[in-house]
Amino acid sequence: MSTGTLLAIIIPIVVVLALIAVAASLLTRRRRLRGRFGPEYDRTVEGADSRRAAERELRAREKRHDALDIKPLPVGARERYTQEWSSVQQEFVDRPEDAVHDADRLVTSLMHERGYPTEGFEQQAEDLSVRHGRTLEHYRAAHEVETLSTRSRATTEQLRGAMVHYRALFDELLSDGGRAPHASS
Question: pTM above 0.90?
Answer without folding.
Answer: no
